[in-house]
Structures are given as structure tokens and as C-alpha cells.
Write a structure and sequence with these properties.
With 775 residues, this protein is α/β, with parallel strands linked by helices. It is built from 19 helices and 37 strands.
Length: 775
């Protein structure tokens, strides 16, 4: 703006000296200069399709153009959307956006949001290898198409080998788009589609710098290749990362087809591109959509992913999203709409131990994926970064913070936080140190996430870190070394809820329990990009075919692939039925009967952490009963939220209003879990006794003749649970039975929570639902 002002002043001086300007024209000129550069942002415009004027002959694109040009002849559409929403995206000033909002047929003009990525042993851990005979045959699985919205794909990965795969399914309508370093020949019968969406990104950030990333479906980051191969990667023998986690790598649905939609770039993932990717995926006829990204919580009518997922659900597409990596704090979830399956992250029974041996004779266990020259056999001096830093960053090992003369040739103890774990190692190495011990803080507890560090390094938990720091800062001559032990299997207890995994309660609709389910998301081995090293740092010149990384980004594609397995076994199942099967067969306890632990605290986890429990795919193939939900049911749910007609239209695209004579209940959505919210009085207190009823409908997908009996556990004397009826008898497949749960809640302190469980069993199948009662 200062440059504009200086330039404007020069023009005014010129015109004044030429007697071409008066005080009035001075004002006009100055105003014109400022208005002409009014800041423009990208907006997503939702149009009511049923309100298209007759003179457009149902040509929505021409209507969109006409509406936009009525407020700005120079404005251009970035995208038009026809499947997940009706509308378009464009760049406008705030005033233009306001004017456009007032035009007939415009439902909403929403500013674009930036989303972030939520960044193998798993088949064995999930029981898929030893139960291979239970899985669907290749002919069915090969017809299922998984769409992944992410950073693109590295098509040369062995995980996209299409050997033995049949022709591409006739239902596929997609394409393999060409672009920088990517052609149609990069696709095959496994990777059947690849598209990229950059227009929204470029409208905000500017043209893609093709010297740094490819303007094509090619993955320059690695994240997209990792998620897509986790979901549907082919079987690859001899997979490993630098010798760690050796074995056979395979996706959850290794015979399914994969279609990739690149919507994320170096500067982030923008909602206009995400919507365009979802819009195209629906048109392409995918069966499953996997999105390992999120942008925090927003009302459903403002959440582009939720809106796009609703349309996909109506088309019979299962949508899986990551819960987020903002744990262990409460209320940190992303992607909480009930038509999305929201996935948290758990650990595997595999670890990569690297021990810290101190000069005082004590040893502490950590983890590392470092592969390179080991430290010398002799003990090295160790120094705490907080005592060798030239900045106020303390022990965080921020770039440029370490004093080389104080760390050269030593091991540096760094605190976790702010910058990435691997960047801390890079900082330590650049300063001339020989190794690094990275210690967790209270936010991470005892969670250990392994990294392929650039120098000898290990990560230790909070307790060990405190002891090591105490030794380093109190001993007159502290020494240490790091010992790397490779790969170890059978680690117990497992799974545990990852500390980083985002937690409930659900901030938008607390009556819907989120996350839905837990899946492996810590130290996951999968395919990687040839454009990036395993750390993702620019100075990391190593290239690997597989990488081990962690995040709910990794747990989400596990569930997406398992959903593909269920869709191939049960092609007539709705997305809600698939979700129900995964949730009601999930487990919440170890074999010894103890609850799955929370890595952040070491305490038993709760449904706010693990949802319905850890996924059990073999049991999910035959769940016995499912809780099905239709698009009409979700419409009633939105009415129960007291959303306006316009807000509901934004989500559903339906020209329908809520029935004023009908009583709607959020708690009666036919969800496979129960989240009961006890109302408070005007003084913020609960009454002596509150009775709340929830109604559910179960559909028989097991044997035609079966009888199920219920058991209920309330978790506290303050809550009573009565189920009516207590027995459900089915005589045919797809028969439905209704039951009611009566929750009787006593007086409790505000923000209290009680956790229980409801199970139906016929002696073979157990159909379980978590219960949360909150005051």
C-alpha cells in the first residue's frame, strides 16, 4: 500500500504541474487508485439449482456466468461445481461478495478455507493375513474404486503394480490427466485415474513454481503416495525403510482400484480445489473417498468437506476422513459430520528401539529410524540445548539457535515442540554436534514416534527425558551414547491411542460421538515419492521407495481400504451400513480385559479418544446387525439442529423444508453410538433426575433366523440404562427391528462424563455401541 501511495503521489504531482488536476479530481483519482486494488479473496458460491430462471433453459453454467458478471464483468469463475454442490468459485472483493450474496438464487457466498494434511505391519496386526480365506475374492474387490484426495501420486511405486488385475471396471468414468512429468501412460489397471486441481491454489498463492513441484498429479511430497498405497497398494515383497520394518507391504484392499485427485500443494490445500476434486470423483464413479486432511470444526453448512461428503454419501460413496493431529487436548476434532467416518490413530505392536546410555550407568529406551554411521564406542559429552542456545527458544533446537562451539562433537538434548522433530536433528547436525536425544514434553507424554533422522538420534518419553535432563544439567561431566536395535515385533500393550490423535467431544453436535473409530496411525510403512527424502526436509537427499510416518493421515486410509473390502463383499450396503459394521465390531479392550490405554496419560482411554474402539476388519465382514441411515434420516437430523431452510439446502441441495408438525430429535439419528447430553437449568445445574429416550433401528444382515439379547453397562450409579425390548427376533435377512434406550441421569457436576456400553448378541455376533452421558 505504501508503494501504491508513493506512485499515486507522483502521478498527482505530475498532473498538478500540468494544470490537469483540481482538488475534486485529486479526490477522485486517489479514490480510484485505492478502489482499483481492493483486496480480492476466493469465495465459493452456492446456488439453488431449483431457482434457475427459465430463460437459461436449465443451463446452470450460463446462469452462474450471468450472476457473476452482473456484479463484476471482469470476474472469472475458477471452478464450476455440478455434483457435490451447485455453484462456482471466484475471486471477489468483500463488497462484491456481499452484492453477489443478495442476487436471486444465491444461497451462500463462503470465503475459501485452507485445509492441512493430517500427517507393513498392519495387515498382520489387523488379522487380515491369517484370515485371508475370509476376504472377498479378487473379482469383487477389483470392481471397487478408491478415490484419494491428497498431494498426488508417485506412479512408479511398486505398490501400483497391476500384474494379474483384470480390465478397468466399466463403471469408471475418470481419466489420467497429463501434466508436468506425468502422462496417461503413468496409469494402469491398478492406478486407473489421476487428476490435479490447482486453480484455487493459484488464485490465492500465485502460479505454481514448477522448479519446485510438478503441476500435474505427480506427488512431490510423499503424503499422497503413502495414503494411497496404504489404502489399496498391491502386494510388494522386500519392502522396508533403510532396513527397518522389512517384509511384505500391501494395502488394506490390495486388489481394489486407485484413483488419485491431487488437491494439496506446497502452500496447502484450498477448499475450492478440494470441492473440485470431490465433484470430479463423484462424476468418475468412485466407491470410496479418502481424505486425510482437515481444517478444524465448523457448522456443517460452512464446511466444504462436509458438504461434498453429503453429496457423495447420497450417491452411495463411503467417505473416510482423518480426525486430526491436535491431541491430546479435548475438543480438537476435524471432520465431525455424521455422514463422514472420522478416524483416530492408534499404535501397532512394532517398534524401533534406540537406547540412550548415560555416563551414570542408567539406560533409557527411545525410538529411531536412523540408518548411518553409528556413534563411536566411547561415551560422548552430552549438553542440554537450553544451556547451549543463543536465542530465547531454550531447549527447542530452533534453526540457528545452537552455539556451535558449545555443541561440536557432542550429543545435544533437545525438547520437543514448535518445529518438527526431524528439523531439530538437522539443526543439531548443522551446528556440528554428533548426535541428538529428543525428549517429549507433557503434551506428548510417553508417545514415541520414530523418524529417519539425518544424524544419530532417538526420541524418548517425558519421564525418561526428565531424568536425562536432570543428569545432564547436574553432573559436572555428563556423557552418553545412543544404541540402535533395529525392528522389534510383538510390543505390548497395543494398540494404544496416539497422543497426537484429536479427541472429542464433538464441538458442533455433541449428541454425535466422535471420533468414530481407531485404526493404525503410528510408524506406518507405505509407498513414498521419489521427489522427497524420508524426512521431507530439503537437505535430505536420500531417496526411498517406502517410508514410515505417523498421523491420523495414516489411520484414515486404513479405514478407507477396509471399507473397500466391505463394499466388495457387500455391494448393496449403504455407506452407513459399512460404517456401522466397522464400528459395532470394533474392540475396546485387550485380551486381558483391560481398556485400551491412552499414550498421552497412560490411563484407560475413553470413547472421546477411541470412539467405538479399534477396527477389527475380520469381524466387520460379518457384523450380524447394522444401523443403517438414509439421506432422509440425515435431513431430519439437520432439521433437529434447527438449521434454516437455506442452511439445509447448502448441505443437501434439496428444495425441501422441515415439517413444522413433526418432532425432530438429534439423539434419534440411527447412529451406532450413543452420546447423551443432559440439559442444565438456568443456573447451570442438572436436575435431580433427567430421563432421556433414544430410539434406534437394527437391520439384520446375518442369518435369516436369529435372536439377539441386549446387555447394558452404564459405567456409574448416576446413570441408569433400560433397553426396551430386551430381545430382538429376526426371521429374514434385511428385516428391521426398533428399540428404545431409556437413560436416567442423576445430578452431576457440570462437564462430568460417564462412559458405558450397549451390546446385542446372538451368541456368535456381538453388536456393540459405546455410550457417553455428559452434563
Amino acid at each position: 500500500m505504501n508503494a501504491l501511495y508513493n506512485h499515486t503521489t507522483t502521478l498527482i504531482f505530475f498532473f498538478t504541474t500540468m494544470n490537469l488536476i483540481t482538488p475534486i479530481t485529486f479526490t477522485i483519482l486517489l479514490t480510484f487508485c485505492y478502489v482499483s486494488v481492493a483486496k480480492k479473496n476466493t469465495y465459493i458460491v452456492h446456488m439453488a439449482s431449483h431457482r434457475i430462471p427459465a430463460n437459461f433453459h436449465n443451463n446452470h453454467t450460463h446462469w452462474f456466468h450471468s450472476s457473476l458478471h452482473s456484479i463484476s464483468e471482469s470476474a472469472n469463475m475458477i471452478y464450476t461445481y455440478h455434483n457435490v454442490i451447485h455453484g462456482f468459485s471466484t475471486k471477489l472483493s468483500a463488497q462484491q461478495a456481499k452484492s453477489l450474496k443478495n442476487l436471486p438464487g444465491v444461497l451462500s457466498v463462503l470465503p475459501e478455507l485452507r485445509y492441512e494434511l493430517h500427517i507393513t505391519r498392519t495387515p498382520e496386526f489387523l488379522g487380515l493375513e491369517q484370515n485371508n480365506n475370509l476376504l472377498p475374492q479378487s473379482s469383487g474387490e477389483g470392481d471397487v474404486i478408491i478415490g484419494i484426495l491428497d498431494t498426488g501420486v508417485w506412479p512408479e511405486s511398486k505398490s501400483f503394480d497391476d500384474t494379474g488385475m483384470g480390465p478397468v471396471p466399466h463403471a469408471w468414468k475418470g481419466a489420467c490427466e497429463t501434466g508436468t512429468n506425468f502422462t496417461v501412460f503413468n496409469c494402469n489397471r491398478k492406478l486407473i485415474g489421476a487428476r490435479f486441481f490447482a486453480s484455487g491454489y493459484e488464485a490465492t498463492v500465485g502460479p505454481i513454481d514448477e522448479s519446485k513441484e510438478n503441476r500435474s498429479p505427480r506427488d512431490d511430497d510423499g503424503h499422497g503416495t503413502h495414503t494411497s498405497t496404504t489404502t489399496g497398494g498391491s502386494v510388494v515383497a522386500g519392502a522396508n525403510l533403510l532396513g527397518y520394518a522389512p517384509g511384505v507391504a500391501r494395502g488394506m484392499a490390495p486388489r481394489a482400484r486407485v484413483a488419485v485427485y491431487k488437491v494439496c500443494w506446497m502452500g496447502g490445500c484450498f477448499s475450492s480445489d478440494i470441492l473440485a476434486g470431490m465433484d470430479m470423483a463423484v462424476a468418475d464413479n468412485v466407491n470410496v473417498l479418502s481424505l486425510s486432511l482437515g481444517g478444524g470444526s465448523a457448522e456443517f453448512y460452512r464446511d466444504s468437506v462436509a458438504i461434498g461428503a453429503f453429496a457423495a454419501m447420497e450417491k452411495g460413496i463411503f467417505v473416510s476422513c482423518s480426525a486430526g493431529n491436535a491431541g491430546p487436548a479435548s475438543y480438537t476434532l476435524s471432520n465431525v459430520s455424521p455422514w463422514i467416518t472420522t478416524v483416530g490413530a492408534g499404535t501397532l505392536d512394532r517398534d524401533f528401539p534406540a537406547y540412550v546410555s548415560l555416563g551414570n550407568g542408567k539406560n533409557y529406551s527411545g525410538v529411531s529410524l536412523y540408518r548411518g554411521p553409528a556413534l563411536s564406542n566411547t561415551m560422548l559429552p552430552i549438553v542440554y540445548a537450553g544451556n547451549a542456545s543463543s536465542s530465547t527458544s531454550g531447549g527447542l533446537c530452533m534453526p540457528g539457535s545452537l552455539i556451535p562451539d558449545m555443541v561440536k562433537g557432542k550429543i545435544v538434548l533437545c525438547d520437543r515442540g514448535i518445529n518438527s522433530r526431524v528439523q531439530k536433528g538437522s539443526v543439531v547436525k548443522e551446528a556440528g554436534a554428533s548426535g541428538m536425544v529428543l525428549t517429549n514434553t507433557a503434551a506428548n507424554g510417553e508417545e514415541l514416534v520414530a523418524d529417519a533422522h539425518l544424524l544419530p538420534a532417538t526420541l524418548v518419553g517425558l519421564k525418561a527425558g526428565d531424568e536425562i535432563r536432570k543428569y545432564v544439567t547436574s553432573d559436572s561431566n555428563p556423557t552418553a551414547t545412543i544404541l540402535f536395535e533395529g525392528t522389534k515385533l510383538g510390543i505390548q500393550s497395543s494398540p494404544m491411542v496416539a497422543a497426537f490423535s484429536s479427541r472429542g467431544p464433538n464441538t458442533i453436535t455433541p449428541e454425535i460421538l466422535k471420533p468414530d473409530i481407531l485404526a493404525p496411525g503410528v510408524n506406518i510403512l507405505a509407498g513414498w515419492s521419489g521427489s522427497a527424502g524420508p524426512t521431507g526436509l530439503s537437505e535430505d537427499t536420500r531417496r526411498v521407495e517406502f517410508n514410515i510416518i505417523s498421523g491420523t493421515s495414516m489411520s484414515c486410509p486404513h479405514v478407507s481400504g477396509l471399507a473397500a473390502l466391505l463394499k466388495s463383499a457387500h455391494p448393496d450396503w449403504s455407506p452407513a451400513a459399512v460404517k456401522s459394521a466397522l464400528m459395532t465390531t470394533a474392540y475396546t479392550t485387550y485380551k486381558n480385559g483391560k481398556m485400551i490405554e491412552d499414550l498421552a496419560t497412560g490411563n484407560p482411554s475413553t470413547p472421546f479418544d477411541h470412539g467405538a474402539g479399534h477396527v477389527d476388519p475380520v469381524s466387520a465382514l460379518e457384523p450380524g446387525l447394522v444401523y443403517d441411515i438414509t439421506a432422509d434420516d440425515y435431513f431430519d437430523f439437520l432439521c433437529a439442529l434447527n438449521y434454516t431452510t437455506t442452511q439445509i439446502q447448502l448441505i443437501t441441495k434439496r428444495n425441501t423444508t422441515c415439517d413444522s408438525t413433526k418432532t425432530y430429535s438429534v439423539g434419534n439419528l440411527n447412529y451406532p453410538s450413543f452420546a447423551v447430553v443432559v440439559p442444565l437449568d438456568s443456573a447451570g445445574k442438572s436436575g435431580a433426575t433427567t430421563v432421556i429416550n433414544h430410539t434406534r433401528t437394527l437391520t439384520n444382515v446375518g442369518p435369516a433366523s436369529s435372536t439377539y439379547k441386549v446387555s447394558a453397562y452404564s459405567g456409574s450409579n448416576s446413570v441408569g440404562i433400560t433397553v426396551v425390548p430386551e430381545t430382538l427376533t429376526f426371521s429374514q435377512v434385511n428385516e428391521k427391528k426398533v428399540y428404545t434406550v431409556v437413560f436416567t441421569a442423576g445430578a452431576m457436576m457440570v462437564n462430568s462424563n460417564v462412559f458405558g456400553r450397549i451390546e446385542w448378541s446372538d451368541g456368535k455376533h456381538v453388536v456393540g455401541s459405546p455410550v457417553v452421558v455428559s452434563w
